[in-house]
Design a protein that fits this description.
Helix 2 packs across helix 8, helix 10 (about 295-305) crosses helix 13 (about 375-390) and helix 10 (about 295-305) crosses helix 16. The chain has about 700 residues and is α+β, with helices and mostly antiparallel strands. It folds into 3 domains: about 45-175 and about 195-245, Cytochrome Bc1 Complex, Chain A, domain 1 (2-Layer Sandwich); about 270-465, Metalloenzyme, LuxS/M16 peptidase-like (Cytochrome Bc1 Complex, Chain A, domain 1, 2-Layer Sandwich); about 485-700, outer membrane lipoprotein receptor (LolB), chain A (Clam), CATH 2.50.20.
Length: about 700
């Protein structure tokens, strides 16, 4: 090993001694320098003669240009009977192309330039944005302006978007967290408030192309639009481009800022019972404050103490010490136009639901009983200030925030004074906002969970109000059939004809069916081939095993219980899915023949199916109704009814056309079914084998517990 020269070793020893004299003995003694001044760049702001407000911010780091616009519109402005209109318009505005450039051509032009143009509408504003290379700006900016001014709203793209929205409606009760957020908001503001309204099948079905055209025409005018441009450009040149593209756009009606109606929530205890979960989602709170409130900054410091990070009270006590939740949150929410929501919440296992509610309440009350210490307040302020710069570490973020604050009428220097306003907050300020905004006695307590697994009955905390999350069905568009003595008698004759054909001499003798079938399914424009074995034991048991490209899937139904057997174990089916499956059973022709004595049938005229004449009847059993077209020989040629798309869960009008009828033990049964939903192809089912009254193991229909 090479030795250091003697002089070098001496120098190191001296340096070490000098360093040792200046070292702190404890981390608590370390002195941090004052944070450097953080200067937020300001955009250049001006207004065109037509009222369009423009924000420009140069950024020459990369050869890119981004444009964004904020439009005075939003779902708050849509009529209550057409909820969903704003979001559908905002989506089709881009996806449908313009009156001068079809959507497919627009997609191609933008893709070749690695550019993007997007549009949308939220609750209180609309937006349009674009992103492109500097060299492609002129062409992409022209497309951007065309989309703002001249959307085409083609009917086919509207139907696609409406389908997306209805799929969302069908799936909205799948995720407990989404249920908690949605229903808690409805409790806070009122279910009929624009702040809490949700699209329903009926409101989406009521939306027409003309509604989109009218909604766009009402709001999309230059005097209702703020335009922001950030990127690699010279401001003088950009001003000329903006004037050329938008300067000739005439003013339109002024859209005034809207403050939607809402009501104060009623304190109480509310429950959504969901039996297919093992965790409870808990929300507790009441209405909060506006961002314009003078106590906004002090409230931010209080929020940081309560639930702002891993050192906050909620994290330290509820999460770390008590181990009741992995994630927990809380604080006073602040809105621009209406008060936000003071809210604390978490997800906890079902067996600690009531304990979790008590823990959250304890921390809220603790702010009153044990006010934040100076050390907590300092740590909270440091957390806010140290992270502040990361919210504005790029010029596009700064421009977006400046446009947002200007849109809502906040002072132009709101960003610049944010840090100073937080630094000024002291213990007395925090104590004041605690007095103003911490009111445990006003809290609404809301739980989504499985009450059978709770550690204590929820009623031990007070009177529980159940919250109904049933999704209203779509409007029935089928023509009504008048029931008279004559139509009922004629309908029964047609039904008897069908029963003799499908059920044979003794329909009640059909106790079970086992079939193997191939299914060609159409989903999202793709063809999927499935193989399915189905066993039905009447009246209410079924086992269905399907071979899919993703593996084998089995569903078992027995009475009011149902389960999906998956590689991860049995998963209980929600009650609404079991109910839908029981309704679907009625549309099985063999089952219909068995219960024909309890079916109400009404003659509904005549029809023709693939050239063959048939008699139409409306049949109803236990609230389920369908229309059947029955030939003179008793074969059902067609059946239509309100059902559900098995791929998306969305409701629609299912139509089944039957063919390839064969004799099975003295009964005529169809071996082919062609199925459409709302006129669109859904599936073709080809039956390979059918067994009547096979010997079945009762274990096939056992519903294991998860």
């Amino acid at each position: 090993m090479r030795k250091l020269p003697h002089a070098s070793l001496a120098s190191l020893l001296i340096a070490a001694a000098l360093l040792g004299q200046g070292q702190a003995k404890s981390w608590k003694e370390i002195q941090y320098p004052q944070l450097p001044t953080f200067t937020i760049p300001k955009p250049e702001v001006y207004t065109l003669k037509n009222g369009m407000r423009v924000f420009l911010m140069e950024d020459h780091e990369l050869p890119l240009i981004q444009v964004s616009s904020r439009i005075r519109t939003g779902s708050w402005y849509e009529p209550a009977d057409k909820v969903g209109l704003a979001s559908i318009m905002g989506a089709v505005q881009r996806s449908g192309g313009t009156t001068t450039m079809p959507a497919d051509r627009m997609d191609e032009v933008l893709a070749l330039r690695a550019a993007s143009v997007e549009t949308g509408v939220g609750d209180d504003s609309g937006f349009a944005s674009m992103n492109c290379l500097k060299g492609d700006f002129d062409e992409v900016f022209a497309i951007f302006a065309d989309i703002l001014r001249n959307p085409a709203f083609p009917e086919d793209r509207i139907q696609v978007e409406k389908g997306q929205v209805t799929t969302g409606i069908a799936r909205r009760n799948d995720d407990p967290g989404s249920i908690a957020g949605r229903e808690f908001t409805a409790l806070m503001y009122g279910k009929d408030s624009p702040l809490a309204r949700e699209p329903e099948y009926a409101t989406v079905a009521a939306i027409t192309r003309q509604d989109l055209v009218d909604f766009h025409a009402r709001f999309y005018h230059p005097n209702n639009i703020s335009l922001g441009v950030v990127g690699d450009f010279a401001s003088a040149d950009m001003k000329k481009k903006i004037e050329t593209v938008f300067g000739g756009w005439a003013r339109g009606p002024e859209a005034k800022p809207l403050v939607p109606s809402f009501r104060e929530p009623k304190p109480g205890l509310y429950l959504v019972e969901k039996d297919d979960v093992n965790q409870s989602n808990i929300r507790m709170g009441y209405q909060g404050m506006k961002i314009s409130d003078p106590d906004y900054f002090a409230a931010q410091v209080m929020n940081e103490v309560l639930g702002g990070g891993f050192a906050s009270r909620l994290f330290s006590n509820v999460r770390s010490k008590k181990g009741l939740a992995y994630g927990v949150f809380g604080g006073v929410g602040a809105g621009f136009e209406v008060p936000g929501v003071f809210q604390v919440g978490m997800g906890t296992k079902s067996e600690t639901t009531v304990a979790g509610i008590a823990a959250l309440r304890e921390e809220v009350e603790g702010l009153q009983k044990n006010p934040p210490t100076e050390a907590e307040i300092k740590r909270a302020k440091d957390g806010i200030l140290n992270s502040f710069v990361f919210n504005y570490d790029s010029r596009d973020k700064i421009l977006s925030q400046q446009m947002l604050y200007a849109y809502h009428g906040l002072p132009a220097n709101f960003l610049e004074t944010y840090r100073a306003n937080v630094e000024k907050v002291g213990p007395a300020d925090v104590q004041r906002v605690i007095g103003r905004f911490i009111h445990p006695e006003r809290m609404t307590v809301f739980v989504v969970g499985k009450p059978a697994d709770f550690d204590k009955p929820l009623t031990s905390l007070g009177t529980v109000t159940p919250v109904d999350i049933t999704i209203p069905p779509p409007p029935d568009t089928a023509p009504k059939v008048a029931r008279t003595a004559g139509s009922a008698a004629a309908g029964k004759q047609v039904l008897d004809r069908l029963v003799r054909t499908v059920g044979g001499s003794d329909p009640q003798s059909v106790r079970a069916l086992r079939s193997v079938q191939s299914i060609a399914l159409t989903a999202g424009g793709m063809a999927i081939s499935l193989k399915q074995t189905e066993v039905k034991a009447f009246p209410d048991r079924m086992r269905q095993t399907t071979q899919t490209p993703m593996g084998e899937q089995t569903v078992v139904l027995a009475g009011d219980a149902g389960v999906a057997l998956t590689p991860a174990g049995p998963q209980p089916l929600p009650a609404e899915k079991v109910a839908e499956a029981k309704k679907e059973a009625f549309h099985d022709l063999s089952f219909l023949a068995r219960v024909a004595g309890d079916v109400e049938a009404v003659a509904a005229g005549s029809d023709t199916v693939e050239g063959s004449g048939c008699d139409l009847i409306s049949v109803t059993w236990q609230g389920s109704e369908s229309r059947l077209c029955v030939a003179q020989d008793g074969r059902a040629l067609k059946q239509s009814y309100a059902g559900e798309n098995p791929m998306t869960g969305t409701p629609g009008r299912l139509e089944v056309t039957y063919g390839d009828w064969r004799d099975v033990g003295g009964r005529q049964l169809p071996f082919k079914q062609t199925i459409t939903i709302d006129g669109q192809p859904l599936a073709t089912v080809t039956v390979e084998t059918i067994e009547v009254n096979p010997t079945l193991d009762p274990a096939l229909f056992e519903v294991p517990k998860s």
